[in-house]
Amino acid sequence: MQIISTNLGKPTEVSWNGKLITTGIYKSPVDTPLLLETESVSGDTIGDRKVHGGIYKACYLFSAEQYPYWKEKYPHLDWNWGMFGENLTVKGLDESQIRVGSIYRLGTALVQITQPREPCFKLGLKFGTQEILKQFIDHGWPGTYVRILEVGKVNSGDTMEMVEESNNPLTTQQFYRLLYAKEKDKTALKLAISNDSLPLHKRERLKKFL
Description:
Shape: globular
Structural class: alpha+beta
Helix content: 10-25%
Order of helices and strands: EEEEEEHEEEHHEEEHHH
Largest sheet: 8 strands, mixed
Mean pLDDT: 94
Distance between the termini: 36 Å
Strand content: 25-35%
Low-confidence stretches: none
């Protein structure tokens, strides 16, 4: 896998339900390396730390291969890398193959795959319609967050190489589908609950479906 673009977001005020909120989803490519820190990307904007940033959501990766699908769906938008609020646009990122818990060397940083992106209203604001939330869920290629095991820098052109594959076979895409499925697959449930690379509160919430 290869990094196509490094992206940062400046604080942007948007109106939602009559209130002004600040968001960092409006990201643009930068020509400097990103410093991946323990709980965030240095210099990036996090509007709400309750749902973004932190150990399990320190950096967000999205696949360059998904851009043509969304460009065709929303041709009127001004397209550039970082459109989905990702810090890193990655060529070859395949959520159907990447396992939750696998460890990768990403530039000089060491990272671990944690959880897929669950879209919120801010993606709808970015795309001009809240309909994209269901479309994004149904499409099934959400990108992934990573945990930073070793702080390091990532530049455009750097590679993402596997260091250690998780013994737990649950993929990012399987977990994503599990989150939104009305009927939960019991095998996937057991894999998710036993995967300590996922946040504890998410695993605890899934136990009630067993």
